[in-house]
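Entry 12.
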Amino acid sequence: MNQLAQRLTPLVRYLADERAHTGGWTPGIRTDEAALSAMTAQDLWALFRAFVNTREPIEPDRGWLKDQDALLHDIIADWGITAIDDACVIPSATDPRLRLWRGDITAIRADAIVNAANSEMLGCWAPGHLCIDNAIHTFAGVELRLECARIMREQGTPEAPGRAKITPGYNLPAAHVIHTVGPIAAGHPSDRDRKLLTSSYRSCLDLAVTHGLHSIVFCCISTGVFGFPQQEAAEIAVRTVRAWLDRHADTSARADQSGEPADPDHDSTPTTPTVIFDVFGEADEHIYRQLLGIPGNQAT
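Predicted 3D structure (tokens):
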């Protein structure tokens, strides 16, 4: 048994024992100590991910939580962390405020990454599902679902499309996660869907500036299972972000020209965040390269 398997085994055993008491999804295989000790690290990771994906937002044992945090931190570090100033994060040729990166959004170090959430705001519950919501919750750790559940209890209603919420990033390299619910277009977006997608981008940017964030990484909101066509969604994303940045720059310029002396301890002038569009597939990368004026021969 390798080191990763040794670290995963007690984490999975705890989750299996917990599930036996709480009920809910079970893997349909033996999870006793002998069975777990015979599994590969890959099998144990798949089992760990499935259990946390389907875990109710309840407080775990503090010792287990400490071990989970250490494991996720090390896994992400081993896979490699990208900073927004790395060479692979390419500035737009036509607008230096915008950048493009192709990679795993859970591996980028920024002030915030954007999660394409659903109206429950509790993450994806499908075991091992390869959506961004699932990945972000998996690698952030179970604390993220706990915090989202707290926010939603206080709100008392499902999250409406076009709005956004902010949480810590927990074990992610990103300091925060901004969660937004995009419209469900099912391949044929209406004018309302277009307005809601625009609102999602604006809401995320508004939260970023409210919290003084200097960088935000957008996923391709609504283009997955929500079915918004990739080309049109990207056009809305770039157009909306540019317009928001332009308006914000005008506000900052007016503040600078007000004639009031600056107070470095109480500077209320918001900062303009650097915006990175993160894509995962080749088709989305091609679309964003065209929109941002980035030649196709630059490696991401």
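Annotation: The domain at 83-292 is CATH 3.40.220.10 (Leucine Aminopeptidase, subunit E; domain 1). The first helix runs from residue 3 to 22.
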